[in-house]
Amino acid sequence: MTGTKSHSVLIVLRTAPYGSGLARAAIDTALAAGAFDQPVAVLLQGRGVLNLMPGQDGSALGRPTLSRVIDSMPLYGIETVHVDEAAAVQFGLPLNELPGYARPCTPAELRELLESHDHLLGF
Amino acid sequence: MPLEKMIYSLLVHSPPSSASSATAAHFAAALTRRGHEVLRVFFLDDGVWNGLGSAVAAQDHSDTLALWQDLAAEHQVELVVCVSSALRRGVLDQREAGRHEHDCATLDPAFTIGGLGLLVEATAESDRLWTFGG
């Protein structure tokens, strides 16, 4: 990183964990931003909430288990993973089993989150 | 009143067969025509197929690769394909082809291979960052 500027980034993940490589690409982008000490936040929306489904196991597909990769986000300075509460209910994500860093968001909180970042990267 | 000049970067994760990729290239060209700077286009996931130099456009399809090549040649737009996405798809420059014992490079010379740090850097250096694909 040669520049001195910095913009806050919100990574919006709307794709399911194993149907394509996009979820992994989003998670890697978030981790890279964290590793470079850039202000970054993550929002799971739509099918993207399935990335936090408890008990998932990617080994049968020969893929890493993405929820475990997301578990490493706090180590990269990403303290909170925002989860669209309505999508979580729609896709059957058990809100009481979410990891401590996951924070369900109401529509008003989502709006505030989307408005408060300089860049939105959609996946 | 003249528009304020801005620095843009693009994130493309759609393949060249998708309308998103052609739209991204046309959008970048329009930005340069309006006097804005397009710092970098970063290709991720299936977006790295845009850098495949051996692709031949169908006669009844627009040649997205040619659009990207023009942007690089005429406006010095930096075209970067993500290294891990590219390697998995066989999109290799000369160095990576040699390193992985493949006979030939497949990345078009208008593009370079780079890490996600270049996408992160683009978010820091650009006034606007647009995502295409997904």
Q: In angstroms, what separates the terminal alpha carbons of chain A? A: 23 Å
Mean pLDDT of chain B: 95
Widest β-sheet, arrangement of strands of chain B: 4-3-2-1-5
Approximately how much beta-strand content do the residues of chain B carry? Answer: 15-25%
Question: What is the compact description of this entry?
Answer:
Chain A contains four helices and five strands. Chain A is an alpha/beta fold. The interface between A and B is medium-sized, with 24 and 23 residues.
Describe what this molecule looks like in 3D.
- The complex is a heterodimer of chains A (123) and B (134).
- Chain A is an alpha/beta fold.
- Chain A contains four helices and five strands.
- Chain A has a five-stranded parallel sheet.
- In chain A, strand 2, helix 2 and strand 3 form a beta-alpha-beta unit.
- Chain A starts with 8 loop residues before the first strand and ends with a strand.
- Chain B is globular, with a radius of gyration of 15 Å.
- The interface between A and B is medium-sized, with 24 and 23 residues.
SSE blueprint:
The complex is a heterodimer of chains A (123) and B (134).
Chain A: E1 9-13, H1 22-35, E2 40-44, H2 66-71, E3 81-84, H3 85-90, E4 102-105, H4 107-115, E5 119-122
Parallel strand pairs in A: 1-2, 1-5, 2-3, 3-4
Chain B: E1 7-12, H1 19-33, E2 37-43, H2 64-75, E3 78-82, H3 83-88, H4 94-99, E4 111-114, H5 116-125, E5 128-132
Please tag this protein with its features:
heterodimer; A: 123 residues; alpha/beta; 4 helices; B: 134 residues; 5 strands
